[in-house]
Amino acid sequence: MKIQKPFITHEVGSMAKPGWRVKPFRKLAITDDDIQKARDWGRRLDIEETPELVELLSKRKGFTKEEKARIKWFSSLYGIRLQEKAGIDLVWDGEQQRVEMYEHPVKRMSGFQFRGHVRSFDNKYYRKASCVGKPGLAEDLHTQEYRQMAEIARNDVKVPITGAYTIVDWSFDENYVKDLTPGAADIHERRKKARSQFLTDVSRETIYPTLKSLHEAGAHYLQIDEPAATTKRDEIPEFITSVKESIGDLAGKTFFTIHICFSNYKLLFPHLKELEGILDEVHLEYANRDSQESGTTPDKRFGYEILHDLKDTSFIVGLGVLHIHTDFIEPPELIRDRILYAADVIGDPGRIMVSPDCGLRTRTWGVTYDKLCNMVEGVNLAKRELGIG
Amino acid sequence: MNILIPGQYPRSEKLVAATRDFDRRRITDEELEAVRKEDAEDFMQKQTGFAYMSTGNLAWQDHLRPYADIITGCKVTGLKRFFETNTFWKVLEPSSETPAVDESKLDEWVERYFLAGGMYTPDSALVFTMPFLYLFKRYSRNIEYAQITEILDTVARRLMTLPEKMLVIFEPSVGFTELTDEERKLGRDFLAKISTYSNTPVILATAFFDVTSELEFLYTLPVSGFGIDFYANPVEKILQGFPMGKLLMTGAVATDSTHVEEADKLRDFFNSVTWHIDRSQVFASFAGPAELLPREAADAKLDVLKEVMS
């Protein structure tokens, strides 16, 4: 699916959840500060329904199931309006309806059981599930969510969903490896076969039907999040196969993005070229590894080196221009120069979409909003520089 | 009983929750320590009868972080993926051009990190775990191999003077990266040097990767034994040419699956191992760091190892 407009902007997925969104689900009381923030952001984002939210929150605690659902709806409304107000073209709600990108989908799949917490780093742990039977969909993953967002949004929406490889890599496997014997002569082959089957089943039985359902519901922009894509250097071919199996016959029928971040992108090449004609946009994180100095020369834009590998592909380049792990507000001029550098390397502004490196959920809404506004301003400066209307 | 659980054992769900509560200032330091102590005692209980017990290193963030406390001017910087897992370590970066161990801190440091804050006495029969040179290099910045060698040598010397210890030197880089001749020599020289400090057995433990192309290097190293992940290596290839008299720490239960191995299957595995080497030289263990598993799964796997090795 082709789009012609240069430098279309989009968010990548998650944003922080407001205190008033989180507390009712943790059985914590809403504070005056929470209510004031709801009021302030409502005013800042011109949200007409703010008085209803304030009234709802003034209950403070003991919310019913229906009231909690309404609070979540408000959170999505605020998230979408924040992006629209910043001038983003393709919006999402900052994943206000989801716990996070792993637990949310896996809880809605059959064949998985949560086994307990494992360390991510330091004292940060996440709940990790194990595959205990053939994976399938126990309930709708994202279609209802999409319909709700499409109803709220004034701009086009882009739906992020966690990809098959990441779900497999972030899960344990009890189902496919149970016949393994330690030290067996064919241990490598058997492990590889088990892994491939696990990936195929997640791709075909959970991700493909989810994408198909979203397509049939009218979603035009679908983003597959695969932060784990390059975790195992010998599994890039399996990752590529899983993307093919996840998209299947939907290729060309809707706009598909793949988002990968904080990875060794060199490992993706040349395998990624196999996804030409299947994927439309390849979105990577760049700003995190770039300098903060303005300029359009390679010595200033060293974070964008991988563009040279993407140049000779047919993909639209999803260009991360905002570092998501710092409160540094990138000036529009820096963003402009990152875009101009990319346009020069790729040679076609129509092949570039502009976005943050990844979801901005570790930043406050204030920082997120300022970053996104500057991103849009940077796009306008780049267009002006290139004489694009 | 010949079971060894080096490195970090997974924290219990209760300790994970308490740590999170502490970070969010919901509980006090004393309350957190009480949960940690309870967890450590539970783990101690599980190891009754083991030749060498492990403290589980339940307070450590990762294997390198304790070193930030004793290396002069050492900063803890950004995250780096722990090999091909979904766990991340923070990278150490000494600010000094000549980073070294502050030896005045060493006794207190050993007690805090290696004796679980005094839960164990210095003469307890314990397995200690240290990073090897390549692992340290991979998760640090602006520090040369010569300086890393000095740091690890200082620590090893202190640990190996304590009686009744086993030292496991952890190194997943073997089989993961192509080592240069210089790196091989540095590793060999380091191990030769520490082997003179005491009779403490030293095991070089690999993990995650196929090491069969490195056996010629591994098997000529001056150590007491080797740790092998048998989910990445076939028994026949590892044990053909296994050096006489060396110990084998067998990675027999997987750390990338919560599937609890059947006892019969593990018995068959150990029979195939002891067909090559004497049972007294074999230690059963996890194939990689146990802490990659949730506690309940690790405990279940430990139970089956105990059943098989009893």
TrEMBL record, chain A:
Q: Which GO terms describe its biological process?
A: methionine biosynthetic process
Q: What are this entry's molecular-function GO terms?
A: 5-methyltetrahydropteroyltriglutamate-homocysteine S-methyltransferase activity; zinc ion binding
Q: Where is the signal peptide?
A: none
Q: Which InterPro entries has this protein been placed in?
A: Met_Synth_C/arc, UROD/MetE-like_sf
Q: Tell me what this protein is called.
A: Cobalamin-independent methionine synthase MetE C-terminal/archaeal domain-containing protein
Q: Which SUPFAM superfamilies match?
A: UROD/MetE-like
What keywords were assigned to this record?
Metal-binding, Zinc
Extract the Gene3D superfamilies matched here.
3.20.20.210
Keyword hit for Ribosomal protein: no
* Residues of the Cobalamin-independent methionine synthase MetE C-terminal/archaeal domain: 78-377
What organism does this protein naturally occur in?
Answer: candidate division WOR-3 bacterium
Look up the record and name the cofactor or cofactors this protein needs: Zn(2+)
Tell me the Pfam families matching this sequence.
Meth_synt_2
What lineage does the source organism belong to?
Bacteria, Bacteria division WOR-3
Automatic annotation (TrEMBL), chain B:
Query: Whose protein is this, by species?
Result: candidate division WOR-3 bacterium
Q: Which residues form the signal peptide?
A: none
**Protein name, per record:** Cobalamin-independent methionine synthase MetE N-terminal domain-containing protein
Gene Ontology terms describing biological process: amino acid biosynthetic process
Q: Which Pfam families match?
A: Meth_synt_1 (PF08267)
Cobalamin-independent methionine synthase MetE N-terminal domain residues are 79-253
Recorded GO molecular functions are: 5-methyltetrahydropteroyltriglutamate-homocysteine S-methyltransferase activity; zinc ion binding
